Amino acid sequence: MNTVLYWAASFALVCFALGMVCATVRLLRGPTAQDRVLALDTLYINGMLTMLAFGIRSGTSVYFDIALLIALFGFVGSTAMARFLLRGEVIEP
Where are its TM segments located (predicted)? Predict the structure, then answer.
């Protein structure tokens, strides 16, 4: 692998880790439930991007499949949480 690509992926991993730390702080200290939901969205997006950077860095496709699963479950989870915050229930009768 090219050394520039390796160092770029390493720098991206550090940036995503810092983003996850900031989102965790917002998740724990968020004054409203909406702040906490946005922090969870940020956490799953940064987790997905971290897996993609690991995949680029290692050259294996397993990390790309994991990133796809994180994106799928994160979207479903944030949609369910938004419906719960708006209506008080996830599944309508």
Answer: 6-25, 37-56, 62-86
